[in-house]
């Protein structure tokens, strides 16, 4: 029988608290929304899911961000009070299926209202002479959405696992003195970089949630400040956000992420084990290494199966999302250009625009290789290393890459440029050979770049359980030289498009707001009819 480490005992205790939180509380009033309104709203949110596709675990918060920004926008336009914004927002989120009906306590409405008032105060009392006021205000609303989500559905389990991995990585990650001496990192910044990397690798958190968690980490009273503390936060909010963004963008952070990404598998599997049954029973059984090995292999098999399903779903949703929000608008442009430049519409060009990106995504997904048998054995070994108390622990060193001279950097940049010329040139040659018009060629290059970027992100996600080193082989080497430049262009286009996405703007302005008002009216009308029917029975 092996001794569990103290950090393992801590995470087991936190998971026990999470299980206890899930138990329904007797005699507590919960929030109910009309079933018809819920079904109508849920259908609409499915459509929005395709348009605003993100990682599945980010979809709920994306909806909160969208709705809270719209409601703050309404507030600003009408110059009215935000007194009932909390209740309206919570009801809208439950109608959309983002939170369960009849499960959330009514007291949460008051909590959400307080959060809205807190961030309203911060926005009203923040410096007005900042050069990036609008951008910073958007970030503040995104942070508010993180706090609202946590209030309505506390991330006890996720934060327990983050704290577990953070505790272990603090012991294991060592920074080479050369990193400090050359000014790439300050000693006091090491823990922050580990905390960021753990969140990015373990749950693929995006910047808003990481910023929110860092604010709580740095300022323990963030969620419940006094009036004086809140005023101080408001007056210094842009400076606080600027410091955190600097920490998020440190180049050395990529090295912390690479280590955490490689070794996050045992933590994910251990979390799955604790989630699978009775905590007390499991915590007693895993003291036997043979039993823990059985649990790890079962958890690994289930997670691998679920991962395959998620990858297929992500491929479908991301492809459809790109078609609707990006390709559709470009196709319209191409149709217009074809009419102007050629006088007729090329059906072949339109079919190529649709089929080529779809087939490319299919190839990217089909060619994903599952982890080898060796990987599951590594997962078992690494899980045992973090579970039990060990005198000797593994260490991972953060050190700088060998400094490249001017000539070496020039040669590498030249190779990258040549690869880009060959890749884009080959695409242009193929389409030109089949007599595609120049407008169609340009649009197809954009399509291919976007799909390559989306497909690469999905392929990266498919390595969630991979611990073994992947050399990539000859095909990987060729991919890096020829397709990496196109993928980079796809990322640039994707990020730029988010700022000027006409389809999303159309839904937000012309559909989202009126539809929300319609649902509120529908629910009120349904309750009115219900009351009238009750009157008839008397």
Automatic annotation (TrEMBL):
**TM spans, by residue?**
314-333, 345-368, 406-428, 434-453, 474-494, 500-522
For this entry, the protein name equals: Uncharacterized protein
Keywords from UniProt, A to Z, are: Membrane, Transmembrane, Transmembrane helix
**Species for this entry:** Candidatus Staskawiczbacteria bacterium RIFCSPHIGHO2_02_FULL_33_16
């Amino acid at each position: 029988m092996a001794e569990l480490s103290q950090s393992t005992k801590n995470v087991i205790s936190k998971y026990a608290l999470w299980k206890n939180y899930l138990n329904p509380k007797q005699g507590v009033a919960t929030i109910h929304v009309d079933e018809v309104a819920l079904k109508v709203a849920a259908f609409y949110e499915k459509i929005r899911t395709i348009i605003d596709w993100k990682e599945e675990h980010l979809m709920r918060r994306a909806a909160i961000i969208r709705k809270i920004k719209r409601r703050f926008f309404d507030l600003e336009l009408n110059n009215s009070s935000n007194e009932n914004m909390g209740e309206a927002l919570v009801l809208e989120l439950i109608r959309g299926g983002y939170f369960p009906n009849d499960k959330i306590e009514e007291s949460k409405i008051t909590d959400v209202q307080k959060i809205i008032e807190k961030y309203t105060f911060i926005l009203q009392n923040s410096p007005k002479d900042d050069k990036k006021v609008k951008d910073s205000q958007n970030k503040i609303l995104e942070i508010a959405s993180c706090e609202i989500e946590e209030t309505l559905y506390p991330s006890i389990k996720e934060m327990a696992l983050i704290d577990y991995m953070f505790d272990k990585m603090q012991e294991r990650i060592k920074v080479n003195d050369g990193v400090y001496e050359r000014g790439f990192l300050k000693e006091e910044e090491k823990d922050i970089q580990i905390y960021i990397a753990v969140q990015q690798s373990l749950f693929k958190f995006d910047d808003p949630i990481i910023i929110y968690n860092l604010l709580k980490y740095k300022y323990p009273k963030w969620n419940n400040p006094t009036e004086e503390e809140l005023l101080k936060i408001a007056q210094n909010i842009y400076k606080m956000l600027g410091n955190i963004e600097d920490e998020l963008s440190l180049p050395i952070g990529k090295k912390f992420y690479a280590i955490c990404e490689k070794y996050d598998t045992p933590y994910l599997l251990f979390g799955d084990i604790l989630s699978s049954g009775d905590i007390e029973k499991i915590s007693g059984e895993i003291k036997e290494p043979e039993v823990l090995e059985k649990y790890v292999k079962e958890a690994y098999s289930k997670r691998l199966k679920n991962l395959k399903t998620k990858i297929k779903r992500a491929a479908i949703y991301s492809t459809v999302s790109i078609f609707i929000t990006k390709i559709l608008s470009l196709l319209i442009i191409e149709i217009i250009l074809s009419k102007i430049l050629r006088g007729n519409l090329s059906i072949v060009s339109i079919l190529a625009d649709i089929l080529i990106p779809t087939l490319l995504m299919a190839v990217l997904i089909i060619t994903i290789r599952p982890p080898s048998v060796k990987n599951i054995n590594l997962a078992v070994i690494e899980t045992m290393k973090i579970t039990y108390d060990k005198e000797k622990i593994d260490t991972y060193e953060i050190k700088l890459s060998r400094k490249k001279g001017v000539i070496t950097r020039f040669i590498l940049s030249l190779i990258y440029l040549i690869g880009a010329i060959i890749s884009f040139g080959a695409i242009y040659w193929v389409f030109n050979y089949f007599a595609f018009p120049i407008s169609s060629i340009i649009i197809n290059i954009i399509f291919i770049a976007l799909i390559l970027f989306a497909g690469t992100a999905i392929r990266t996600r498919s390595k969630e359980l991979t611990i073994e080193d992947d050399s990539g082989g000859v095909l990987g080497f060729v991919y890096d030289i020829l397709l990496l430049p196109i993928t980079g262009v796809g990322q640039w286009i994707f990020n730029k498009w988010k700022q000027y996405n006409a389809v999303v703007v159309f839904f937000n302005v012309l559909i989202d707001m009126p539809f929300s008002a319609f649902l509120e009216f529908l629910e009120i009308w349904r309750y009115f009819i219900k009351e009238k029917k009750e009157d008839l029975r008397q």
